[in-house]
Inverse folding.
C-alpha cells in the first residue's frame, strides 16, 4: 500500500518552525513537498543554531526529504512561476504575516481562480481575522498571551516557558489536521478551500480543563510545579540521587505504594483513606512520603516499584530519551545522512499506520534551490535555455 | 458547503482525555460521534473534577455534541451490538491498554473482516508494540519519560511539569491527523487500516531542536526558565507590578527596545552589537535591562512598546485569556448550555476553514446512554421490544 498522502503535491512557502513542521508531517504521510525559498538566502531557519560544519541542524531536522526550488517572488517572472506551480499542486501552505500573499499578488482569491481544487493553508501568529491579526508573533509571545505560562512552573518562581515551542508545534498539528480533512472533503466536492490557523487560537484550544476550573471558583488556575491538581500523591519526589515521578492514580495503587515504601500504617490513616482526603491533606502527607523516598536512589526505587507493579519514571534527560528501549523499539529515533554533516539523529514519525512502512532513515534536507531545475522541467516543462535565462536574471 | 467530515461516522470507545479530545476534534470537523460507555458508570472522566451541580465540567468540555450509547461489552449480546455497529461506521477510536480489544473478542483483525473499510485508531500510552507497550501510562509519566520535563522549568528548581496534559493532547492531535489521512486514502483504495499512536512517541516527536542540540555538544539540554536559548533579550522581565514578555527578535528591534527604555547607549555597546554577542554576554546585559523594566508597570510598558511597534505581552492568566479581544474575535471561546449546569464557556475550534461556519455555541455533552435507543433503531433497526429486553438483561 502506498503512504496515505502518496499522491499529494504540496507547495510549501513556509519558513522557520510552524509551517515547516507541518509540511514535514505531510511528508511523513507520503506527500511530495516543494519548498519555495528566496534565492541565495533561503528559509530563515538555515541561519538558526545549533550548527554543525556550518549547517543548521535546526533546519535539517524539520526539512528532511523536501525538495527546494528557489524563486524570487518579488519579480514578475517569479510570480508567474509560482502561479504556474499552483496549478500543478493540491496544497499550498504559507506562514507569512496575514496580507503578505495578497501584496505579492498571490492571495488565495486569485490563486483559487487558477486552481479551484487548491487547498490553501495559512498558519500565522494570530490568524487572518481580528483586531490583532497583523501583529508579529513569536512562540514565547503566544505562550504568554494564551495562558499556558500562567499555569506552568512554580507558585513562587518567575513565569516559566514550556521548554519547547508549543505555540509553533501545536499550530502545525492543527494545520495538518485541517489539510488532511480538506483533502478528504475534496474527494466529494471537487473543491479546495482556505484553512486559517492562528498560533494563539491553538494555545487556547489546548488549555484543557483550566478554562472550566476557573469558571467553578472564579480563581484563575495557578502553576502547581509538578503535582497533579486533583490526584494525590501524583508528582515527582526527590530520591537520594535524583527525582522520580510516582503517579498513584487510584486507591489500589495507594496501598501498593504504602507497602512498597514501608509505610503500611498510612493506608488506613483516616486523613489519607481516599484520594479526596489525600488531596485535602497533602501538606501533611507529602512530607511524610518525601522522608521515605529520599532514602533510596532512583534505580533502587525503580526496582522496587517494578516488582510490585507501581507506575514510575525517572526524569529522562535528552540523552536518556534517545536510548530508551521503548522509544527505540518504536523507531522514534531515525537517522539522516547529510553529505556535509554526517549522521544526525532526529525524531521519527509517531503516526504508525498500516500504510506507512517503518524506515529507520530519512533523506537529507535540500540545499537552497537544489531541485529548481528538476521541478521547472517536470512540473512546468521548462527547457534548459529558459532555466538558464531565469537564473541569469536572478528570478530563480 | 458541509463540514469536511460531514459524512463520517465514528464509533468512539475512548475514555478520559487523549481519546475523547481526538474525537472532539473530529466532531468539530463535522463527524458524527457515537460514544460507547459502560452502562451506569460511563467514561471515567465523568467522575473527574472540576464539578458544578454534581456534573463534571472536565467531561463536558471534551464530549460536547457526541451521542452516547451504553453497552456492556462483557456480555455476548453487547459484543454483538458492537460488531453490528462496526459495520455501519467509518472510524473506530479506542484508547484501551493494548490487547484489551483482543481480549474482548473485538480486536482489529476480527473487526476488519466485518468491515474492510474500517479505520481503526488506537491511542495508547506506549503504543501497540515494543517491550513496554503493556505498561500503564499517565500524562505526567510520559512527560517525564519523553524528556519534556527535563527542558522545562528552572535550572535550580525541582522538575517542572507542563501545566496542561501535553502528553494526552498531542497524542490526540497526531491520532486525528492519522485518521483524516486514512479517510483520504480510503477514497482511493477502498480499504481501511489500523492507526497506532503512543503518547510517549508523540512526546519525542515534539522535542523539536532539543535532540540536535544534544548531538552538537554532547550535553543534554537543561531548562532555561523563560528565556530563549539563542536569542537575547527574549524573555519575561519583572515590571513594577508583574512580569512582561519582551521578545527582541532581531537587531532592528534591539535598537527600538533600547530607545524605548531610555538606554540608547547600549545600542552601540561593543558587547551587545549583535544577537550572538548579546547572548554571549547575557549575564552582563540582563541585569542592566532588569533595572530599567522594574521602573514602570506592565500597562505603562505596554503603552510605550505599542507606540514603537515592539512585540510584548503580559503573562495572561486564564481570566485574561477568556476576555482577550483577539481570542474573542476569533471565536475561540464558545458556550455550552447544559440543562443541569447552565452556561459554561469552553475553547472553540482553532481550525478555521471555508467549509466550517463559525458557531458561538456547542451542544451539551450526552448523559450516559442518552442516545442508546436512537442509535439502536436508526443504525441497526432494533425494535422497542428488543431494546427493552436488552435493557432488562443489563446489556445496554
Amino acid at each position: 500500500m502506498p503512504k496515505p498522502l502518496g499522491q499529494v503535491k504540496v507547495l510549501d512557502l513556509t519558513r522557520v518552525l510552524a509551517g515547516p513542521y507541518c509540511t514535514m508531517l505531510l511528508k511523513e504521510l507520503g506527500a511530495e513537498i516543494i519548498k519555495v525559498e528566496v534565492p541565495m538566502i533561503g528559509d530563515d531557519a538555515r541561519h538558526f543554531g545549533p550548527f554543525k560544519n556550518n549547517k543548521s541542524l535546526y533546519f535539517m531536522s524539520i526539512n528532511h526529504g523536501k525538495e527546494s526550488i528557489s524563486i524570487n517572488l518579488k519579480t514578475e517572472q517569479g510570480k508567474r512561476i509560482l502561479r504556474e506551480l499552483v496549478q500543478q499542486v493540491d496544497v499550498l501552505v504559507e506562514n507569512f504575516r496575514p496580507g503578505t500573499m495578497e501584496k505579492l499578488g498571490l492571495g488565495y482569491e486569485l490563486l483559487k481562480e487558477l486552481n479551484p481544487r487548491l487547498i490553501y493553508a495559512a498558519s500565522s501568529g494570530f490568524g487572518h481575522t481580528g483586531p490583532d491579526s497583523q501583529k508579529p508573533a513569536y512562540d514565547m509571545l503566544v505562550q504568554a498571551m494564551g495562558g499556558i505560562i500562567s499555569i506552568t512552573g512554580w507558585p513562587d518562581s518567575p513565569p516559566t516557558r514550556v521548554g519547547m515551542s508549543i505555540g509553533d508545534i501545536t499550530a502545525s498539528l492543527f494545520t495538518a489536521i485541517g489539510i488532511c480533512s480538506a483533502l478528504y472533503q475534496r474527494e466529494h466536492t471537487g473543491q479546495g478551500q482556505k484553512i486559517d490557523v492562528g498560533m494563539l487560537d491553538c494555545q487556547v484550544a489546548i488549555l484543557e480543563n483550566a478554562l472550566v476550573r476557573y469558571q467553578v471558583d472564579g480563581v484563575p488556575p495557578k502553576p502547581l510545579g509538578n503535582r497533579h491538581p486533583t490526584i494525590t500523591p501524583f508528582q515527582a519526589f526527590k530520591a537520594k540521587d535524583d527525582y522520580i515521578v510516582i503517579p498513584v492514580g487510584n486507591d489500589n495503587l495507594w496501598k501498593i505504594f504504602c507497602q512498597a515504601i514501608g509505610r503500611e500504617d498510612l493506608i488506613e490513616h483516616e486523613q489519607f483513606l481516599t484520594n479526596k482526603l489525600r488531596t485535602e491533606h497533602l501538606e501533611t502527607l507529602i512530607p511524610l512520603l518525601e522522608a521515605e523516598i529520599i532514602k533510596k536512589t532512583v534505580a533502587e526505587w525503580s526496582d522496587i516499584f517494578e516488582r510490585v507493579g507501581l507506575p514510575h519514571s525517572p526524569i529522562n534527560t535528552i540523552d536518556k530519551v534517545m536510548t530508551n528501549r521503548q522509544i527505540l523499539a518504536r523507531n522514534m529515533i531515525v537517522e539522516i545522512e547529510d553529505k556535509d554533516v554526517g549522521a544526525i539523529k532526529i525524531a521519527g514519525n509517531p503516526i504508525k499506520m498500516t500504510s506507512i512502512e517503518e524506515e529507520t532513515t530519512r533523506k537529507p534536507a535540500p540545499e537552497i534551490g537544489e531541485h529548481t531545475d528538476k521541478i521547472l522541467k517536470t512540473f512546468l516543462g521548462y527547457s534548459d535555455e529558459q532555466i538558464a535565462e531565469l537564473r541569469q536574471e536572478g528570478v530563480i
About this structure: The longest helix of chain A spans residues 166-189. Chain A has two domains: 9-206+357-392, 234-314. Chain A has a mean pLDDT of 97. The radius of gyration of chain A is 26 Å.
